[in-house]
TrEMBL record, chain A:
Pfam families: PEP-utilizers, PPDK_N. Keywords: Pyruvate, Transferase. It is an enzyme of class 2 (transferase). InterPro entries: ATP_grasp_subdomain_1, PEP-util_enz_mobile_dom, PEP_util_AS, Phosphohistidine_dom_sf, PPDK_AMP/ATP-bd, Pyruvate_phosphate_dikinase. One of its GO terms (molecular function) is pyruvate, phosphate dikinase activity. Its EC number is 2.7.9.1. This is Pyruvate,orthophosphate dikinase. Residues 23-62, 68-271 form the Pyruvate phosphate dikinase AMP/ATP-binding domain. The lineage of its organism: Bacteria, Bacillati, Actinomycetota, Actinomycetes, Pseudonocardiales. PANTHER family: PHOSPHOENOLPYRUVATE DIKINASE-RELATED, PYRUVATE, PHOSPHATE DIKINASE 1, CHLOROPLASTIC.
From TrEMBL, chain B:
This is MarR family transcriptional regulator. It comes from the Bacteria. It comes from Amycolatopsis thermophila.
Length: 576, 202
């Protein structure tokens, strides 16, 4: 295809061009291509190929001819948009992003607003009539470039203006952001190439057995601005509801906003209905696009879009983040729609998600009239009842108790493993107690205030860590029964058919090994050779399931089948 | 400085219930040296043995409380150490805790829910940031590391956990049952709090 365009190092989308390979253009560009070929409008872009990356490492410099092709690529964008790169009127700014065939950590992600300098800022201010917008674009570009190209490690995001960002970069790395947009572009492309050989990217590839010299492509795409005028804005759209998984588009729109404004949470966007009112045509186009991407992606999509002067642009579409409830609903729904087969649906739901759904809750009405003893921040959700102890040693001696501490430290981890719930006087959602409890999936309420230890010790309490409350006595709880929830029941039936091990509530095959009797420790208990059945809390968690499978057991006994089945299937998939 | 025996007892405040091998891994001592120290400490009533693992006793803690001010007198009087500790508490320590929380939970429609690690880009960004904070931590803690060799050992172990996490073993971010970034970070935090005689800030 490069022959048709005359480029050696670039791929520039042309009408009727066949789809490029992911290996050549990287995953991100490939998905842009996909959107474009579906007839959806994406900002114009071109790609520097992975072949150029390989050549860069061979010659230790941008390969011969690439600089000229970059100029031609940019001219192509300029022609389509009627803008000029580095221009003093209607300037063109671009994003530069890495894109290997497989996304991996440690590689440079994205530089936005490249092509900015003092003159371009003035031109942007004149064009938009909004000097603040132009200054913000310049400040942010400077930060991106400083961090990603020049390797500045200081925090640049919170600095007030471009001058401050420049000063911080100069102080840290002793280099300046070049004013020449072409120099910016060439340096950014080289930096993306180099990032594919970062220590982290290399470690990742080694672990997954990927070729060490796997390079990256570089996508260069025209920026669109949602904050230009009243006819502009930005938003996100989910093709299905991310909270409960129902099949209805769901989204937010921020008039006069830029993409990051929505994600950052600095401002409150409006519901999508606002867009429907203001721009019914754009809204309809957006919904049609969401439908199309959902079908093509075979999964719920999270779509970023920008409206610039009344024209819709799609920026990204990827599988949507979802709650545990939504993950289950979407997986089953996709089977019903004929998109997935049951085996594939099982890969869309994790053991952890199902465990989340099966967490007990305080039974309806049970908390009414119960005495509230303490309240704080719910740091790891769930409900548990038990006797309160105040030392990790006592917690170890009484598994299933509630450990209450002023705050927790590494000294307490043992007690936290043994306890059914953890409560602290001090600390917030990022405290040690919160982090460790989440890692253990133990209900935890933090920050209940001074005196909580003394007030609770020795009492039987119920910790409602979803609401952040501690009640006197043992309150009734109710749990979702996986056999009564239709979606979970269907997933369970599919999982039983696919599982490498039997998972059931009873019916042990001798000899049996009981993990709960093996002592509570930080490490997994060693399963005796020849064990046919395992039981105990430790074998309900993924690492325990993994250990059981590796030890060749035939049966895992547990009250909740589905999370264990899913963990077993996932482990089997990884190892076979 | 702590002598080898004191170091062994001290290591039990960083990792409660440890085997001699696990404690030696924390301090970098020979296992034989740790075993000898543990034996002596058990006889003194500072440490209890439980099925091959060891645990510090209240008497052991009291003993250490008497040892620290002498052992770390010089270090505690060093204004550079004090400043470094201040920078650690208000800066990188807060960042690591916030990043660990971001790792464990993810925002869906304004609510934080358990991160099911289905979004590779999201996870990669967090591991990337953890890497940068780790690099910065080595700079911030330099005055402490110059005064106490164990600090560098902790930084190395955090780096090892990070490399494993970067290599796809994601349990090495905040897993409790392995020497994850968070587990080792907290051991290090506890260690430097004891060095400097400060209270845990929360």
């Amino acid at each position: 295809m490069t022959a048709t365009t005359g480029f050696r190092w670039l791929v520039v989308p042309e009408a009727d061009m066949p789809e490029p390979s992911r290996e050549l253009v990287g995953g991100k560009a490939w998905s842009l291509w996909r959107m474009r070929s579906l007839g959806l409008r994406v900002p114009p872009a071109f790609v520097v190929t992975t072949k150029a990356c390989a050549a860069y490492f061979e010659g230790d410099d941008l390969p011969e001819g690439l600089a000229g092709e970059l100029t031609a690529g940019i001219r192509h964008l300029e022609d389509q948009l009627g803008r000029t790169f580095g221009g003093t009127e209607r300037p063109l700014l671009v994003s530069v992003r890495s894109g290997a065939a497989i996304s991996m950590p440690g590689m440079m992600d994205t530089i936005l607003d490249l092509g900015c300098n003092d003159e371009v800022e003035r031109a942007l201010a004149a064009e938009s009539g909004d000097p603040e917008f132009a200054a913000e674009v310049h400040r942010r570009f400077t930060g991106f470039y400083g961090r990603l190209v020049l390797g500045c490690t200081e925090d640049l995001e919170d600095l007030p203006d471009t001058a401050a960002v420049r000063a911080a970069i100069a102080e840290d790395v002793g280099e300046a952001v070049p004013a020449d947009p072409w120099e910016q572009l060439r340096a950014a492309v080289a930096a993306v190439f180099r990032s594919s050989r970062s220590r982290r990217a290399m470690a990742y590839r080694k672990h997954y057995g990927m070729p060490e010299d796997l390079g990256t492509a570089v996508t260069i795409q025209a920026m669109v601005f949602g904050n230009l005028d009243d006819d502009s804005g930005t938003g996100v759209l989910f093709s299905r509801n991310p909270v409960d998984g129902t099949r209805e588009p769901y989204g937010e729109y921020l008039p006069r906003g830029q993409g990051e404004d929505v994600v950052s949470g600095r401002v409150t966007p409006k519901p999508l209905a606002h867009l429907a009112q203001r721009w019914p045509r754009v809204h309809a186009e957006l919904l049609a696009a969401a439908e199309c991407l959902d079908r093509e992606g075979r999964d719920a999509q999270d779509i970023e879009f920008t409206v610039q002067r009344g024209e819709l642009f799609l920026l990204q579409s990827r599988p949507a983040k979802r709650t545990a409830r939504a993950a289950v609903r979407i997986a089953v729904e996709l089977v019903d729609e004929g998109v997935l087969d049951p085996a594939e649906a099982l890969t869309r739901v994790t053991a952890e998600q199902v465990r989340t759904l099966l967490r007990p809750e305080i039974a309806p009405g049970a908390a009414e009239g119960a005495k509230l003893l303490a309240s704080g921040v719910g740091a790891s959700p769930g409900v548990a009842s038990g006797v309160v102890v105040d030392t990790p040693e006592a917690a170890q001696a009484h598994p299933g108790c509630v450990l209450v501490r002023k705050s927790t430290s590494p000294d307490d981890v043992h007690g936290m493993i043994a306890a059914a719930a953890v409560v602290t006087e001090q600390g917030g959602a990022t405290s040690h107690a919160a982090v460790v409890s989440r890692a253990l999936d133990t209900p935890c309420v933090v920050g209940c205030g001074a005196g909580t230890v003394d007030a609770l010790v020795g009492r039987t309490v119920t910790v409602d860590a979803t609401a952040g409350r501690v009640y006197a006595g043992e309150l009734a709880t109710s749990a979702v029964d996986e056999r009564e929830d239709p979606d979970l029941r269907r997933l369970t039936a599919w999982a039983e058919a696919a599982s490498p091990v039997q998972v059931r509530p009873d019916g042990a095959v001798e000899p049996v090994f009981d993990g709960d009797q093996a002592g509570v420790g930080e490490a997994l208990p060693v399963i005796p050779a020849g064990t046919k059945t395992v039981r105990g809390a430790v074998f309900c968690a993924p690492d325990g399931v993994q250990a059981a499978l590796d030890a060749g057991v035939e049966v895992i006994l547990t009250a909740h089948q589905l999370p264990v089945l899913l963990a077993a299937i996932a482990h089997h998939r990884r190892t076979s | 400085m702590l002598d080898p025996y004191e170091l062994t007892v001290h290591s039990l405040t960083l990792r409660q219930l440890g085997t001699a091998e696990q404690l030696a891994d924390i301090t970098g001592q020979d296992v034989a040296e740790v075993e000898a120290g543990l034996e002596k400490a058990v006889a003194a009533g500072f440490v209890m043995a439980a099925r091959g693992s060891y645990l510090i006793t209240p008497a052991g803690r009291e003993h250490l409380d008497g040892v620290y001010p002498r052992a770390f007198e010089g270090l505690r009087a060093d204004p550079q150490v004090t400043a470094a500790m201040e920078a650690f508490e208000t800066g990188v320590n807060k960042q690591v805790l916030a990043l660990t929380t971001d790792w464990q939970t993810i925002e869906v429609d304004g609510a934080r829910v358990t991160n099911d690690h289905g979004d590779a880009d999201y996870d990669a960004k967090i591991i990337d940031k953890l890497g940068r904070v780790h690099e910065k931590t080595a700079k911030v803690l330099r005055p402490l590391a110059d005064a106490d060799p164990l600090v560098d050992r902790f930084l190395d172990r955090i780096g090892t956990a990070l490399t494993r996490a970067e290599g796809g073993e994601t349990d090495y971010v905040s897993g409790v049952r392995v020497d994850s970034v968070h587990t080792v970070w907290f051991q290090m935090h506890e260690h430097i709090l004891r060095l400097t005689g400060r209270e845990r800030p929360e």
